[in-house]
Each structure stands twice: as structure tokens, then as C-alpha cells.
Amino acid sequence: QQRLNSTTTSTNEPITVQEHQYETDEWTNAPAQILSSVSRRLHLQKDHPITITRKIIESRFPGFKTHNSLFPVVTTYQNFDSLGFQPDHPGRSRTDTYYVNKNTVLRTHTSAHQADVFRANESDGYLISADVYRRDAVDRSHYPIFHQMEAALTWDSNSLNGESLAKRVWEDLEALPKNSIEVLDENPTIHPERNPLQQEHKQEDVEAIAAHLKKSLENVVVEIFARAAESSKSTTNNVTEAPLKVRWVEAYFPFTSPSWELEVFWQDEWLEVLGCGVVKQQLLNNAGVPTRSGWAFGIGLERIAMILFNIPDIRLFWSQDPRFLSQFSESAQPLVSRFVPFSKHPACYKDISFWLRSSSAAGGMVKGTTSDFHENDFMELVRDVCGDLVEDVRLTDEFAHPKSGRRSMCYRINYRSLERTLTNEETNGMHERVRQALVEKMGVELR
Ligand code: FA5
Ligand code: MG
């Protein structure tokens, strides 16, 4: 039995998303604020940095069929089951995913469309760009709506004319643009436990597919870095910047194996920019294309755009402020220029400490999470009350009372507007409303 989402009132009013109507039920947890942003589709807005980023990446994949306006409401089958997510996978939880109703969600990733696009079988390569939705942390690189670009390339064994798959893939790799980027890649392509070969696959084929995948993505990174470097040259008086560091790390996705993530060292930390891998053969078989095998990746467009344009905060992409929007143009020369922040407004930190309901005391030990307190509920509550006026929310302390076992949490909320200086009155007012909502909706006791 899952607890009702604390930030949504439970009426049984149907939900309308654009022209479509959906029944609601006890699973419904998509807030109005999120649903009303579905129409923004930043990846299609002319001159928007997300659109520019999308087009730059698309240009690296000539011949791939593009799908850029797939509808964001999908079935749980599309988002999870078709990809092999087990019934108890945490990604399905209402703390992580926005449900429209029990069988319907706002897609949490562009992979929700993989099976359908494979089934349509219209091209060897395809690209899907779209808005995706997740309940997640509040900080400079996470936002509940963001944009992904999915790509897949498969080879049909019926069209190899007697050649081996591995040989064909290596030939295709030879034809890719050359680059001399140095990428840390310390692990073997296949690892029997951590990153296994699928039983349907031959090792030599997978080695070739993986090499083609990594080379294709490294070419994207080269393009991004070249443009970012060009833009910083034109605005920073030839101050030379250290070349960006990049590394491949092993990953796990239910729908690829082996799998990897690519990370870029940016602003003093490793930033994950994409996930990828060799498509599960079972998925292709189920999609009616059993003679195809190949790779897929999903890239976070905001993360790339932040590196490209030097945009420091993910909330900026949603800004309607002309001081933001006017800095980007699809016809600019050079196309990419460094974002010039409008004056940075002061931050205001405020702490909030509370005791969880005593039933929570015996809860799980995952950071910030117990059996009936989930950090994402708190994050969403803050967004609900404060909108984009909060820069980040962090857990700063957590402990259990030695005698009663009751758990106490302390979060630090950093209030900062991107557009203006907040008054003390305004921040105090917001903080008070967060405190009240926390008591009313999550039943905690403030300290
Ligand atoms: C996925 O979503 C997989 N569907 C990717 C994939 C596709 C793997 C095809 C294999 C084959 P992940 O949850 O790691 O994976 O998200 C992919 C990227 O989206 C991340 O690397 C990151 O760049 C971006 N991302 C994830 N969460 C957020 C967020 N809250 N805000 C902004 N960007 C995010
Ligand atoms: Mg990831």
C-alpha cells in the first residue's frame, strides 16, 4: 500500500494534458505545475539553447530518422515493462515517477519509445528528442522536467551479404569522422559480473558495436568541446582553459548490456551526461525485429547545453526573461557563445529541522529516506511552495534519538532568484509556508 502523494489533493477529477483526458486514481501524483509545463517543449522553441544543442548533436548523426514531437504521456508498459524493468524496480515508485493514473505516467526517459520505434522499423538509425519528467533532487543540475535525446543504431543481419556483423560494424566505424580525444576508459568492454555479454550475442560483435558506440559519442563530445572552446576564446580574451576531462564508467540499465555512462569533469566535479549500451536482444525480438542488433544511448540535453554555453543553473532554461533568451540564436556566428550571467543575486540559506512521525523510526537507512519519508516528497513540496526561487535543497544532518529512536532531519534551503534580489520578507514568508506545508502534508514535527 503506497502512501498518497502529500503534495497533490486526491480528487477524482480527470486530468487533461493538451487535448487528451485521463482518469485519475490513487496513483495520481502529477502536480498541476508540472502538467501545465508540458506544452513548453523547450527542445522545439526557436533560438532556445536546448534547441541549438539538439541540432548540434543531430548534425553528428546524418541519415538518422528524427522523432521530436512524441507525446509525453505513456503507459507504464512503454516506460518500464517493454524495457525489462522488473515489477519491483525502484524507478517505478511514486516517489520517483509522476503518475497520471495507475497505468499511465509522464515518461521518465526517451527510452519509453524505444520498442515502438524499433517496431516501426523505418531506418537503421533514429533519434528521439523529448521532454521527460522525474521527481528528483533540487539543485543546479536537476530539474523535474528536462530533455533527453535518445539514439539507436542497429544492423540487420539480413543485409550483411555474407559478411560477419563484426566486420561490417568495424568498417562502418572506419567511416566515422576521426578524432584524437583522450578519454579515460579503464574497464574491459565486457565483464562477466558487472557488465555481461548477452547470451544471444557473440563477443566479437559486441566488441565492435561497443567501439562504434563509444566513437560516435566521443565525436559528439569533441564537437561540443570545440564549440564551447571557440565561444570562450571569443569572450575571455584568450584565457586558455584546461581541456575538459572525460571518462567512461560502467553502468546498468535493464534494456542494455553491457552498459556505460559518460562523465565530464565540469565545475570541479564529474557530471554524468549520458547513459548507453548494447540493446537487449530480447527487446528487439519483442519489437518484431529479431534480425537487428546494435546500440542505444540517452543524453541529457540540459547537461550538454550547460557545458556548451556555460549556463550555471538548470532553472535558467525555463526563464522567459529576455536577458536570458536574447543571448541565443540559431543564426548567430559563431553559433555558440558563452552565456553572460545577469548580475548574480544574493543567496539566502535557511535551515529546517524536524522529527519524523514515530512510525518512521524503524525506517530504511537510505540517505534521507525512511519507510514513509522520501526525500523527493520534500523536494517537490519545496518546489510547490517556492517555484524556481530555490537554488538547492540539501540534507545537512540526520540522526536517531538515542532513547526514543525517533529520527530527526535537517535540510538547508538556499533561496535565490535568478532574476532579482529577494527581500527578507519574501524569503521569510516562503520559508514559513514551507514549514507549514511540511507539517500539514507530511505530518512531521518541527523542531
Ligand atoms: C536514462 O534515462 C536511460 N534511458 C539512458 C539510456 C538510453 C541508456 C538508451 C541506455 C540506452 P539516466 O537516468 O542515467 O538514463 O539519464 C540519462 C541522462 O539524463 C543523464 O546522464 C543526465 O545527463 C540526464 N538527467 C538525468 N536526470 C536528470 C535531471 N533530473 N535533470 C537533468 N538531467 C538529468
Ligand atoms: Mg544515469
UniProtKB/TrEMBL annotation:
It comes from Microthyrium microscopicum. CDD domains: PheRS_alpha_core. Residues 343-447 form the FDX-ACB domain. It catalyses: tRNA(Phe) + L-phenylalanine + ATP = L-phenylalanyl-tRNA(Phe) + AMP + diphosphate + H(+). GO terms for molecular function: ATP binding; phenylalanine-tRNA ligase activity; tRNA binding. It is found in: Mitochondrion matrix. GO terms for biological process: phenylalanyl-tRNA aminoacylation. The keyword GTP-binding does not apply. GO terms for cellular component: mitochondrial matrix. This is Phenylalanine--tRNA ligase, mitochondrial. It is an enzyme of class 6 (ligase). Pfam families: FDX-ACB (PF03147), tRNA-synt_2d (PF01409). Its EC number is 6.1.1.20.
